[in-house]
Specification:
Belongs to the flavoredoxin family. The chain has 209 residues and is of the alpha+beta class. The chain contains 5 helices and 12 strands. The chain is globular and about 50 Å long. The structure holds flavin mononucleotide.
């Protein structure tokens, strides 16, 4: 099958994308409105953006009515009506159901922290709280927001990192089994990160991308 994506309707494009780009890591993003209301939502169009400086990116669609999602409003710089700060918490198996539940659209000004019963913990450098239950949390400041059609790619610099003591091993290696990160497949399917294999000669001696 040879496919010109421009000839497809957006929902078919979406199906082909989410069934092919798998598994997708999930950014569990906590942000704060300028009025001080905490917001929490999952984003699986998410990945590392660099480590010089440490940077992450995720992509936010518009709502079906064309308005901006709460997270996008909040992560915009202060000059554009947001706060320009957010935390990327990990999506892990112990609260996987809450990750999915937090995608429920609540009215702007209502906090998903209360809705899904996860606890906010104070961040060290920025105002939005991290998720207390998350074993790793990246405190980020927005560097750039790149519009791509109806999506906005948010690129942020990590200004502080929380790593729970029990998941940090020797030589700053993260114990991925203790973290228990989950990934998103298509539809309602998720995956675990416990099924792995090694390619011994492929191990990078230097950080590689
Ligand atoms: C696992 C998962 C991954 C998601 N990934 C994205 C994504 O990458 N981009 C996006 O715009 N919405 C994504 N969503 C939907 C948002 O989480 C949802 O629209 C949410 O209500 C946005 O919240 P907000 O308005 O508080 O920002 C995802 C939902 C789930 C359950």
């Amino acid at each position: 099958m040879e496919i010109d994506p421009e000839l497809l309707d957006p929902s078919t494009r979406y199906k082909l994308l989410i069934g092919s780009v798998v598994p997708r890591p999930i950014a569990f993003v906590s942000s704060l409105s300028p009025e001080g209301v905490a917001n929490l939502a999952p984003f699986s169009y998410f990945n590392a953006a660099g480590h010089k400086p440490l940077a992450l990116m995720f992509s936010i669609s518009l709502k079906p009515d064309g308005s901006e999602k709460d997270t996008l409003r909040n992560v915009r710089p202060a000059s554009e009506g947001g706060t320009g700060e957010y935390v990327i918490n990990l999506a892990v198996e112990s609260y996987a159901h809450q990750v999915a539940e937090s995608s429920e659209p609540l009215p702007y000004g209502e906090s998903e922290f209360d809705y899904v019963n996860l606890s906010p913990a104070p961040s060290r450098v920025i105002k939005p709280p991290r998720v207390a239950e998350s074993p790793v949390a990246f405190e980020c400041r927005t560097l750039q927001i790149v519009p791509v059609g109806e999506f906005h790619i948010v690129i942020g610099q990590v200004v502080h990192l929380f790593v729970r003591d029990d998941v940090l091993g020797e030589n700053n290696r993260i114990n991925v089994d203790k973290v228990g990160a989950i990934g998103r497949m298509a539809g309602y399917e998720y995956c675990r990160t416990g099924d792995r294999f090694e390619i011994p000669n492929g191990f990078p001696k230097q950080p590689s991308v």
